[in-house]
Amino acid sequence: MVNRIINQLTANLKRYFRDITTDVRPPSAKTGYKLPLLAGPVHNLGGGGNDVDDAIQWMINSVRGGSNSDTKVNVLVIRAAGNDDYNQLIYRMRGVNYVETLIISNRQEANRTDIFDKVRNAGVIFFAGGDQCEYIRNWKNTKLEVAVKSVYDKGGAIGGTSAGAMIQSEYIYDSCACEDSIESTEVLNDPYRNVTFSYNFFQWKYLRKTIIDTHFDERKRMGRIMVFIARQIQDGVSATALGIAISEETSLLVDKYGIAKVMGKGAAYFVLGDHLPEVCQPGSPLTFSNYKIWRVPRGDTFDLNKMPTKGYYLRSVKRGRFDSDPY
């Protein structure tokens, strides 16, 4: 009898945590938990590497009404593969009602009604790192996408790191049919070889006409984000494009007014292309003059509502080479 009772209790413990016996079930009629009014929407865009824990806490605090609020929110981590390591970290944060990791690895799972219900009842969504091509392939035009948008529309937080941040921009470098990511030297010499983009995914208010890249300083990705920008203009997608480039162990926090603040160890770069490139065609090195670049260190801000008229420096690419150090 005792063993049977123990087994029943064990079976009732939810899987949202590994090796934790706390019952952190999602809201239901039995728990009586009511979804709170949310104070966002906001974003936390991580540059990869070690996460900035304070940036995740900022997301939670922003949507629950401040660090001193009694409101608690539901947090979901979404990924296509991996584990639930985020659960332990996030559950220890202030203002968390429950947390769960959803591993959604195909379109069938992304269209499940129970997944849809879990996501739309969250206040904070965080996309883990992985492969942005797989994310787009498996999640775009599914119920999951609709549910994530509903969280934003009700004032929630949408965050992510590495590939999970890259899918938040309007223009998304998608790794060309899920092949290995291209490096700056390769793409500067041929802006069209193995470079493809996805469009019409989330399209958040303050991230229109942007393309996000991560692991930026560490992997020397200025060249490739310059190519990504040039391609949007050359291909007729937009007359201008803004690259948002985030270093590792760094987060860019975007509040509900469109003010972006850098948090963590590194910097964020905002790279603007606002005219046609001189040469951007298959098989030829890129030539594009006078990118405007703002380097924003930790603690500083950038207004995504409008381009600042000062504080930038100019850099050009001529026949696939920088005219001077772009960093």
UniProtKB/TrEMBL annotation:
Name the domain of life: Bacteria
What EC number(s) has UniProt assigned to this enzyme? 3.4.15.6
The entry's active site is S162, H215, E248
Q: Does the UniProt entry include the keyword Hydrolase? A: yes
Q: Which InterPro entries match?
A: Class_I_gatase-like (IPR029062), Peptidase_S51 (IPR005320), Peptidase_S51_cyanophycinase (IPR011811)
Name one process (GO BP) from the record. proteolysis
Q: Which reaction does it catalyse?
A: [L-4-(L-arginin-2-N-yl)aspartate](n) + H2O = [L-4-(L-arginin-2-N-yl)aspartate](n-1) + L-4-(L-arginin-2-N-yl)aspartate
Mention one GO molecular function: peptidyl-dipeptidase activity
Q: What does this protein do?
A: Exopeptidase that catalyzes the hydrolytic cleavage of multi-L-arginyl-poly-L-aspartic acid (cyanophycin; a water-insoluble reserve polymer) into aspartate-arginine dipeptides.
Similarity section: Belongs to the peptidase S51 family.
Q: What name does this protein carry?
A: Cyanophycinase
